[in-house]
Amino acid sequence: MTLEVIEICAGAGGQALGLHLAGFTHRLAFELDPHACNTLRENALQGRVAVTDPEKAKDGTWVVSGDVADPDNWKPTEFRGVDLLAGGVPCPPFTIAGKQLGATDERDLFAWAVEQVNLVQPRALLLENVRGMSMPRFAGYRQHVMDRLREFGYAAEWRLLNASEYGIPQLRPRFVLIAMKPDDFAYFHWPEKSEKPAPTVGETLLELMKANGWKGAEEWAAKADAIAPTIVGGSKKHGGADLGPTRAKRAWAELGVDAYGVHDMAPPYPPKRPMTAFGPKLTCEMVALLQGWDDGEFKWTFTGPKTARYRQIGNAFPPPIAKALGVAIASALNRETEKHDVDPDPEHDFVYRALRDTGEFMTAAQIVRHVGLEIDDPEIDKRISLLSRDFELLKEEKSTGMLAYKLGGFKAFVGQRDHVRHEYLRDSISKIS
After folding, report:
1. Positive or negative CA dihedral for 330, 333, 336, 339?
2. Which of 176, 315, 393, 415 could disulfide-pair with 233, CB 3.0 to 4.6 Å?
3. Beta partners for residue 29, in sequence order
C-alpha cells in the first residue's frame, strides 16, 4: 500500500530521500531556502523522490518555497488524513551551542508543528531536532507537546538517536518525536541499531582523498581513525562554509582535517592554496558521504554554489536514519509488527504536571506533596525557573510569606498573526544565500 507524506522544513532532502526509500511518496514539501528547494526539485526529476502528482514533480510545484507557518501559503486541512506529517523544524532554539531560548526564540516552529497535527490529523507524526531538546531545560516544553498530542488523540514517544549507531561515520545525536493514534502506535518499534560499528572518517573518505593522486592519503586515513564530530550547517552570520565552532575544529584537527572552510577539490592542492598543518580540507562531496549520502542507494544531487551546497548538506537529517524511521513507521501503520503496550501519559516534568493538574497557585511544598516525591527546595526552585522560560508563571505571596506559582500561557509561536517571529522572518528571508 502506498503511503503519502507531507514534509515541512524539508531542507535539502535527507529526510525526503530516506522516506522515499521506505516507501513514502510526497504530496507536498515546504522549505524556506531557495537553493534547497531547487535541490529537492532536481532530485524528484531524477526519480530519487516519488511525488504523488507526476505533473507537480515535472513542474516542481510539489515543493513550496516560503514560510510554512504562513496560512496564505497552504491550507493544512486540505491534507487531512495524510499518512505522515514529517519535518526537521529549526534547531537553534534548543541547541546547547546557543542561548536555548526555546519558546521565546523567534525561529522556534516545534510547537507550531505540533498544532498542525490537530488540523491535518495525520496517521503518524515524525519531528526531529537536536540533542539539546532532550535536556532538563526543556522538560516543561516537552510535557506541553505530549499533552497537546494526547488532547488531539495521539500517543507519542521521544527517543535520542545517534547517527553512528546506524552505520553513519558521525556522532550526530538527534532527538526524534514519533506520534500515532494509540491503536497504530501499539505496533511501532524504534529501529534496531546497527550490529557493526560505524566506519571511521579515514575509512569513509580514503577513496575520495586518493582521487587526485595524493600520496599522503593512506597515512592520513590511518590517523583519521574515529567517527566525525557532529557536522553543522555553517553560519550565515559569520560567513561561509565552516565545520563548526572552536571545540569542533579541535576534534577535526585530531582527525587530521582542516575545519576552517571547505575545499573545491581533493588534495594535493595548487601552490596558491596549499594544505595547512591541520591537514586536508573536506569537499562538499566528502561531507555528504559523512552524512550518509553515497553513490548507491543514497545517491543525491545538490544544487547551488559551494557555500549553499555545504549548508544544505550540513543541516540535513542523515538519509539512512530517515529510512530506518520511515520503515518503522510504515510497518506500524500496516500492522506488520508485534503489538505492545502504550504509555498513555508519559511524564517529562512533574512541576509542570502538578501546576497543570491543579490549575491553582501552589507553593514548592504543595508541589512536592502533590507529586509524592522526596525533592529538596533547590531542585524545585530550579525546575520552576526553567519552566518560567517557556511559560508564563503567575506568582502570589501566601500569608506565610511563601511564594506560590500558577501555570500561565505557553510563550511559543503556535500560529499567532501578531507574533514577533513574523518581523524576524521578514528580516531573515532577504539574507538567505
Report:
1. positive
2. 315
3. 7, 63
Tell me the residue range of the domain where 153 lies: 3-196+318-333
**Are 189 and 76 in a shared domain?**
yes
Indicate if 70 and 139 belong to the same structural domain: yes
Q: Are strands 173-180 and 124-130 parallel, antiparallel or unpaired?
A: antiparallel
For the chain, 433 residues long, the average pLDDT of each consecutive 10-residue run is 95 98 98 98 98 98 96 95 98 94 97 98 99 97 97 98 97 98 98 96 99 98 98 68 89 97 96 93 98 97 96 97 98 97 90 95 93 87 96 95 96 92 78 50
Q: Is 37 a catalytic residue?
A: no
> In terms of domains, do 324 and 299 share one?
no
Report DSSP letters for 16-50, one per residue.
HHHHHHTTEEEEEEEES-HHHHHHHHHHHHTTSS-
Distance CA(327)–CA(330), nearest Å, equals 5
Q: In 210-237, which positions are buried (b, 16+ CB within 10 angstroms) versus exposed (e)?
A: beeebebbeebbebbebbbbbbbbbeee
95 phi/psi in degrees, rounded to 5: -65, 140
Alpha-carbon distance of 367 to 352, in angstroms, equals 10
Q: Where are the beta strands (DSSP E) in 74-152?
A: 84-87, 124-130
pTM: 0.95
| Judgement on whether residues 385 and 264 belong to the same structural domain of the protein | no
Question: What domain count does the chain have?
Answer: 3
Residue 71 lies in a domain: yes
Task: Tell whether 285 and 359 lie within a shared domain.
Answer: no
187/260 same-domain check: no
Residue 268, preceding bond cis, omega within 30 degrees? Answer: yes
Q: How many Å apart are CA 424 and CA 420, to the nearest integer?
A: 7
Which residues, other chains included, contact 10 with Cβ-Cβ below 8 Å and sequence gap of 6+? 16, 29, 30, 31, 36, 40, 63, 87, 88
CA distances from 157 to 111, 128, 194, 221 (A): 16, 12, 21, 39
User: Catalytic residue among 9, 37, 91, 284, which?
Assistant: 91
CA distances from 48 to 102, 175, 311 (A): 35, 26, 20
Q: Roughly how many angstroms between the first and final C-alpha of the chain, as a whole number?
A: 40
**What is the grid cell recorded at 391?**
511559560
